[in-house]
């Protein structure tokens, strides 16, 4: 007799909202096996399935809706989830336990509200059409793009997180961008006055206008631009479009109309289980209010989703008891961090502050009254301090005797809190609530690959802010268990860059294919190993980058020996050693720029940049430049870029040595040296330091007795002063020590590692480096000098080499069978020179236009 198995009837669970939090709830339900108990339906107003709003601004950078999607197109169907996208829920009938849509009624046993929030737009007279845009959904971004196509200037109302992202979006669309903020500082919730001032200085330096303490009274027709915003102080600002990012409001309309309890400041009221006043209805994310607070970050929403999913799966779950609103982000390229009690509102709290007005950097550390614990912090300009400070704050770790040391600059960079100092309860990834203990458990279970760890725990897959700390903890745990940490360059080479460099040198390997055959796996390599090996081969043997053995390994800039610009054209940067140039060469540069209609600019490294050349024009332009006595400036390569100099003792009344001559000697010696990262030099003729040598990888400053040598400095996003390495050197000693320093760096640095980062990673620090270079403690001095001399002796201008070889010139074509230029590249005139057409100006280009 056959037994009949009666299936257990499933209850119906409806989720209203398919944003990041609603989607995460579905993931959790699937992961916990709850779909055996529930038939799940999800309703979303937008036609697209859930997408990543954290990286929404990347939509303007080339990403599309599909690349932003949080799951594969068949994810819901494969797991039995019924997705109703582009369907708005109009009403919740609590009495009948049904939701009402335009297509009918749907019964539920359990209901989750995940409707999120909507942008708040103040009731300003005249705000309509392109003067009432918002920045929330992909459709909103499409509206902004359309409006920007006929605009020159755009304004964002609101200087918070989203407001600054929106300003960055306008800037990326080619508009002149402005931010108008009602408060007296930017990011008023996260930053204090000094932090807001530092952020304002940095953002204004990027060309974004900032208008604080401004309230818009009305919007009327403008005179020079489409609209005029009239402020409460009598001032006004004209613009072609206005994006409102003045905060969010909980999307609680369904809950209100259904009679659920609503918090005083909006949001469906929930308890610690995320239940509403109706036991059959939960609310999660920005539509929910816990203890009167609405949380506008994704991590608290994810936490609520986990709490609800655990209950529905019949598992013990962590109650939701609030959220840490600490945040680390990059706004318009500027690091900003806010931790805990950033304003020092806790009674008795004390603050330590570091202010650097020269670089608009600011750090504030808020500690408890007894000085033992971190309560909060503010960071503007450098988030390398963030992970350490966050762990001190979250885990109650006792402060060092001098708390200020945690935010003061030190020669070795931001102080790091070792992974062994963190308790197992320390949160590593707040988006997915992954603790150090969870990471340890995965290592104990046998995971030894970082990618596998991320797949198993989801850590590092949310906002990505925890990636560095996650890697540090993971590798520490592997090492603690005696597991060798895999530092392979990539899947094709189970070696570090340093090990591959040694193989190439010792075995005399001259091609990627030979190295792959002897020491690698696979047949073709990848985007990680090919450029790294190409750089190693060039460093060892100084082969021209145009050599057929190296060309397939390079990125676009090295392949075409020019820097590609945003509109697909290229820049030409001839070498002007030491900044010294004759009138005849200046005339030659001017003639070439005029002939090919190139935008011309003098750089900070004492060179002349020529912009706007199309690919097919590069050989002709370089042919004329080389005939005039110029050679490649290697602006496209990871190599020596410039040796900047002042005029020195030849002309300057303060100069004590001939800095120009020394700059010429150094640049002509080291030009063409390929290295892990770009290298810059400077030579100053006296201690007045006009060449800014102390901000360079190699800096030389004249003294009465000779030269002082500085090493491992850099400008850029994280500036670092070079360190004094040796004093009062004669010419020969100076060059000998630079030879050794550079070759030791080339030999031992990791891929794409600047001299400053390499120096900070050396065990023993500067003293060790001095011992190796100055005292020859490793006995490598003569070998390093000989290596450098080989590079010097083999130097050849790469463009001169390419122009002599018809085969190499074949790749300088926009189209394989056509010698013409790219018809989609357009320019307009500005200040008597041409520049690329901005996205907002494309409508100005005639349809029939063709470029010669």
From TrEMBL:
Residues 637-758 form the Nitrite/sulphite reductase 4Fe-4S domain. Belongs to the nitrite and sulfite reductase 4Fe-4S domain family. Residues 428-475 form the BFD-like [2Fe-2S]-binding domain. Its cofactor is [2Fe-2S] cluster; FAD. This is Nitrite reductase large subunit NirB. Residues 326-394 form the NADH-rubredoxin oxidoreductase C-terminal domain. NCBIfam families: nitri_red_nirB, PRK14989.1. The keyword Flavoprotein applies. Residues 565-627 form the Nitrite/Sulfite reductase ferredoxin-like domain. Coiled coil: none annotated. The keyword Zinc does not apply.
């Amino acid at each position: 007799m056959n037994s009949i198995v009666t299936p257990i009837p499933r209850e119906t669970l409806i989720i209203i909202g398919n944003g990041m939090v609603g989607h995460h709830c579905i993931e959790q339900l699937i992961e916990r096996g709850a779909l055996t108990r529930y038939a799940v339906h999800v309703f979303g107003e937008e036609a697209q399935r859930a997408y990543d709003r954290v990286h929404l601004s990347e939509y303007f950078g080339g990403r599309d809706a599909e690349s932003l999607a949080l799951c594969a197109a068949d994810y819901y169907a494969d797991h039995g989830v019924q997705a109703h996208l582009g369907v708005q829920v109009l009403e919740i009938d609590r009495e009948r336990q049904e939701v009402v849509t335009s297509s009918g009624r749907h019964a539920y046993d359990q209901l989750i509200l995940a409707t999120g929030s909507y942008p708040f737009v103040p009731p300003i007279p005249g705000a309509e059409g392109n003067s009432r845009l918002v920045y929330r959904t992909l459709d909103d971004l499409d509206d902004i793009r359309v409006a920007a196509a006929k605009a020159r200037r755009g304004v964002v109302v609101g200087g918070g997180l989203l407001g600054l992202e929106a300003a960055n979006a306008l800037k990326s669309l080619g508009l002149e961008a402005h931010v108008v903020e009602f408060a007296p500082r930017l990011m008023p919730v996260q930053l204090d006055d000094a932090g807001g001032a530092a952020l304002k200085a940095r953002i204004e330096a990027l060309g974004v206008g900032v208008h604080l303490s401004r309230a818009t009274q009305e919007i009327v027709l403008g005179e020079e631009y489409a609209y005029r915003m009239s402020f409460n102080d009598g001032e006004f600002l004209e613009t072609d479009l206005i994006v409102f990012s003045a905060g969010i409001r909980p999307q609680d309309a369904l809950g209100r109309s259904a009679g659920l309890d609503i918090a005083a400041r909006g949001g469906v009221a929930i308890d610690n289980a995320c239940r509403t006043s109706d036991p059959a209805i939960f609310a999660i994310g920005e539509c929910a209010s816990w203890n009167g607070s609405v949380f506008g970050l994704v991590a608290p929403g994810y936490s609520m989703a986990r709490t609800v999913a655990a209950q529905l799966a019949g598992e013990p779950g962590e109650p939701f008891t609030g959220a840490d609103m600490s945040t680390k982000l990059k706004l318009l390229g500027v690091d900003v961090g806010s931790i805990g009690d950033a304003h020092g509102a806790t009674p008795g709290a004390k603050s330590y502050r570091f202010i650097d007005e020269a670089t608009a950097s600011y750090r504030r550390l808020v500690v408890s009254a007894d000085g033992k614990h971190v309560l909060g912090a503010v960071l503007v300009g450098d988030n390398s301090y963030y992970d350490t400070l966050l762990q001190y704050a979250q885990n109650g770790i006792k402060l060092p005797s001098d708390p200020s040391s945690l935010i003061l600059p030190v020669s070795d960079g931001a102080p790091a809190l070792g992974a062994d100092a963190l308790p197992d309860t320390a949160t590593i990834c707040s988006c997915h609530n992954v603790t150090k203990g969870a990471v340890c458990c995965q290592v104990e279970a046998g995971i030894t690959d970082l990618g596998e760890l991320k797949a198993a725990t989801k850590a590092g897959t949310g906002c990505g802010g925890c990636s560095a700390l996650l890697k540090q903890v993971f590798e520490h745990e592997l090492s603690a268990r005696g597991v060798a940490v895999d530092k392979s360059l990539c899947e094709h080479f189970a070696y570090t860059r340093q090990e591959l460099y040694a193989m190439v040198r010792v075995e005399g390997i001259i091609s990627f294919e030979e190295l792959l055959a002897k020491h690698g796996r696979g047949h073709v390599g990848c985007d990680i190993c090919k450029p790294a090996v190409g750089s190693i081969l060039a460093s060892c043997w100084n082969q021209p980058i145009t050599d057929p053995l190296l060309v397939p390994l390079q990125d676009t800039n090295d392949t075409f020996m020019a820097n590609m610009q945003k509109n697909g054209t290229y820049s030409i940067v001839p070498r002007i050693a030491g900044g010294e140039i004759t009138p005849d060469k200046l005339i030659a540069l001017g003639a070439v720029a005029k002939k090919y209609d190139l935008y011309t600019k003098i750089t900070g490294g004492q060179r002349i940049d020529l912009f706007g050349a199309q690919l097919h024009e590069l050989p002709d332009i370089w042919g004329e430049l080389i005939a005039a006595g110029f050679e490649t400036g290697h602006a496209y390569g990871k190599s020596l870029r410039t040796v900047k100099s002042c005029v020195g003792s030849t002309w300057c009344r303060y100069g004590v040595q001939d800095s120009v001559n020394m700059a010429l000697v150094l640049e002509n010696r080291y030009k063409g040296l390929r290295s892990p990262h770009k290298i810059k030099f400077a030579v100053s003729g006296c201690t007045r330091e006009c060449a800014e040598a102390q901000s360079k990888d190699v800096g030389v400053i004249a003294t009465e007795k000779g030269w002082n040598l500085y090493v491992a400095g850099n400008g850029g996003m994280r500036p670092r002063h070079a360190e004094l390495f040796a004093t009062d050197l004669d010419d020969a000693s100076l060059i000998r020590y630079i030879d050794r320093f550079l070759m030791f760096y080339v030999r031992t640095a990791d891929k794409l590692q600047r001299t400053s980062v390499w120096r900070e990673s050396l065990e023993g620090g500067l003293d060790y480096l001095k011992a190796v270079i100055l005292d020859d403690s490793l006995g490598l001095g003569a070998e390093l000098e000989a290596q450098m001399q080989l590079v010097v002796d083999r130097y050849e201008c790469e463009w001169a080499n390419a122009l002599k070889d018809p085969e190499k010139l074949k790749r300088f074509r926009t189209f394989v069978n056509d010698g013409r230029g790219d018809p989609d590249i357009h320019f307009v005139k500005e200040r008597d020179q041409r520049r690329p057409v901005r996205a907002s100006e494309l409508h100005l280009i005639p349809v029939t236009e063709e470029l010669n």
